[in-house]
């Protein structure tokens, strides 16, 4: 990659974000981690990744549901590494409920974290990327950026919006060597998916096994969860020279869910 790149990966203390951050660090990139969790465990994670990969790994626990904090996370990354070359907007949350019962505070939180946070980080980084004539923005969208599922009104709305935002910034950055793409996974067995199983059991009056087999994996023809490491590999590809002309795309990694 030449000069060492600096990456910000949101929601990177577990699940997809951690897999992406780990892959980036092992590929020789400095990485800013962000997310929730026990402070001691996060420090152990950060220090271990830094030691193993031989790059600089920092952590900032900015609350991305706050606009100023989300923009400040970019400033923190620039302060740590002198720049931000790559942003992976991955942080997200889920809530499952019939629309008539959907709590307004849950709607607002999901839109703020899953959609607005990506706007705030991108907005804060875009001018610097233009000036340096390099930027790679990867938004973790979802199969739900393309298709809907019942009881997930806020999540589906946010992910559709995130893909639209991705396409827009892809056009705005195209002549500045800024590429923006979405990765749209199907179901990945992460804490976010695990945490929605009880709500789905309640909403659909199903057992845990029924939710996994008849709801989550029903949509994926392979009948397998996507691996977080598969998504990390795709993110790495989007940073490679082979992907220079991939811009404004949604790369689906869903076992064939959206092929129908």
Descriptive report:
This protein is of the alpha/beta class and 260 residues long. The chain is 48% helix and 13% strand. Helix 3 packs parallel to helix 4 and helix 6 packs across helix 7 (208-216). The longest helix has 29 residues, at 104-132. The protein is globular, with a radius of gyration of 18 Å. The N and C termini lie far apart (38 Å). 45% of the residues are buried.
What is this structure, in a nutshell?
With 260 residues, the chain is of the alpha/beta class. The protein has helices spanning 15-26, 39-53, 67-81, 104-132, 153-173, 191-204, 208-216, 228-238; strands at 6-9, 30-33, 57-59, 86-89, 135-140, 178-185, 250-253.
Radius of gyration, in Å, reads 18 Å
> Proportion of β residues?
5-15%
Give the low-confidence spans: none
Structural class: alpha/beta
> How many structural domains are formed by the residues?
1
Rough outline: globular
First and last CA, distance: 38 Å
What is the name of the CATH architecture? 3-Layer(aba) Sandwich
CATH fold annotation: Rossmann fold
Sequence of secondary-structure elements? EHEHEHEHEHEHHHE
How many strands, what sense, and barrel or not for the largest sheet? 7 strands, parallel
Share of residues in helices: 40-55%
User: pLDDT average, as an integer?
Assistant: 96
| Name of the top-level CATH class | Alpha Beta
Number of helices: 8
């Amino acid at each position: 990659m030449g000069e060492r790149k600096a990456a910000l990966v949101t929601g990177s203390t577990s699940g997809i974000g951690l897999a992406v951050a780990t892959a980036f660090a092992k590929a020789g990139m400095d990485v800013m981690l962000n997310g929730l969790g026990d402070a001691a465990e996060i420090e152990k994670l950060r220090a271990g990744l830094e030691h193993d990969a031989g790059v600089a790994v920092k952590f900032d626990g900015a609350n991305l549901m706050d606009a100023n904090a989300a923009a400040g996370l970019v400033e923190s990354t620039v302060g740590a590494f002198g720049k931000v070359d790559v942003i992976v907007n991955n942080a997200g949350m889920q809530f499952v409920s019939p629309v008539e019962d959907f709590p307004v505070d849950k709607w607002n939180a999901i839109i703020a974290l899953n959609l607005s946070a990506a706007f705030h980080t991108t907005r804060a980084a875009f001018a610097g990327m233009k000036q340096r004539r390099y930027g790679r923005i990867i938004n973790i969208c979802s199969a739900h950026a393309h298709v809907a599922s019942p009881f997930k009104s806020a999540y589906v709305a946010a992910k559709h919006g995130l893909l639209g935002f991705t396409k827009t910034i892809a056009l705005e950055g195209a002549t500045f060597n800024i590429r923006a793409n979405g990765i749209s996974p199907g179901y990945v067995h992460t804490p976010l998916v695990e945490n929605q199983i009880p709500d789905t059991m309640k909403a659909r009056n199903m057992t845990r096994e029924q939710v996994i087999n008849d709801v989550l994996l029903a949509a994926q023809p392979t009948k397998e969860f996507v691996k977080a490491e598969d998504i990390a590999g795709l993110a790495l590809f989007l940073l490679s020279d082979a992907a220079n002309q991939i811009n404004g795309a949604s790369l689906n990694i869903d076992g064939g869910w959206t092929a129908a």
